[in-house]
């Protein structure tokens, strides 16, 4: 279970973006999160991915309460969640080839020896040819780079995936390919998914259920600041 309970988070002391947001994803479940621009969906997604420390509230992953975020989080928890962001350009090191980008989490966790096999397995799963794997980000399209970013997110076989507007910049065929790659991975591993987006039709089609941001907030009191 991925449980976000009464989470308050933001970027400035005493000025949270939202207060008391709660959301649960059951093992193997796919939950879509919809809401207006700027309400804090990405911030909550980053809390769930252990990338942003909340001001208050709880994140419980498979029964373990998370007490440290980012580099302070224990490796076993950090690697339990794979994350894909909206903008592949800002999420990818421009110096790395796509093969090295995909293998980055394996290198960072001392599993460099598995990198070649895992990249060979993941590249076709996300629709990347061997030739594309040798290129650097500046020499591939946004869609191709996003495919590599998805493969990177899957490289450590996470139990949870957080896709934050993963397909917002992409055309319909790349969107379909990436959603299919996520779904194949989930069928193979039973991973749960939190998919943040604006596209209600896509999220309804993709996810087991879709949650409105307002329904994540406490009923009483004004949402947000
Ligand atoms: N790094 C940051 N520093 C300061 N403020 C930030 C930062 N990131 C986001 N914010 C602010 O926090 C608020 C929530 O942003 P967030 O990206 O979580 O919203 P969102 O619901 O995902 O929006 P969108 O649907 O437009 O992506 C916004 O007002 C935004 O300007």
Automatic annotation (TrEMBL):
InterPro entries referenced in this protein's UniProt entry, alphabetically: AAA+_ATPase, ABC_transp_ATP-bind, ABC_transporter-like_ATP-bd, P-loop_NTPase
Keyword terms of this UniProt record: ATP-binding, Nucleotide-binding, Transport
GO molecular function, one term: ATP hydrolysis activity
One GO process term, biological-process aspect: transmembrane transport
A family per Pfam: ABC_tran
Domain ABC transporter: 2-223
The family this protein is said to belong to: Belongs to the ABC transporter superfamily.
Name of the protein this chain belongs to: ABC transporter ATP-binding protein
The organism of origin for this protein: Streptomyces filamentosus
Lineage of the organism: Bacteria, Bacillati, Actinomycetota, Actinomycetes, Kitasatosporales
């Amino acid at each position: 279970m991925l449980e976000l309970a009464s989470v308050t988070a933001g970027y400035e002391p005493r000025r949270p973006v939202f207060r008391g947001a709660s959301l649960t994803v059951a093992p193997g479940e796919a939950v879509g999160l919809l809401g207006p621009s700027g309400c804090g969906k990405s911030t909550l997604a980053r809390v769930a991915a252990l990338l942003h420390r909340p001001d208050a509230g709880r994140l419980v992953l498979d029964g373990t309460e998370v007490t440290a975020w980012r580099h302070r989080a224990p490796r076993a928890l950090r690697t339990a969640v794979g994350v894909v962001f909206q903008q592949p350009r800002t999420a990818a090191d421009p110096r790395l080839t796509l093969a090295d980008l995909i293998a980055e989490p394996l290198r960072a966790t001392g599993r460099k020896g598995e990198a070649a096999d895992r990249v060979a397995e993941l590249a076709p799963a996300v629709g990347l040819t061997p030739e594309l794997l040798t290129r650097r980000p500046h020499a591939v399209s946004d869609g191709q780079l996003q495919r590599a970013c998805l493969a990177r997110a899957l490289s450590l076989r996470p139990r949870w995936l957080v896709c934050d507007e993963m397909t917002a910049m992409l055309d319909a065929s790349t969107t379909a390919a990436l959603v299919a790659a996520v779904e194949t991975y989930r069928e193979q591993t039973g991973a749960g998914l939190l998919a943040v987006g604006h596209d209600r039709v896509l999220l309804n089609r993709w996810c087991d259920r879709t949650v409105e941001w307002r329904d994540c907030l406490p009923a009483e009191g004004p949402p947000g600041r």
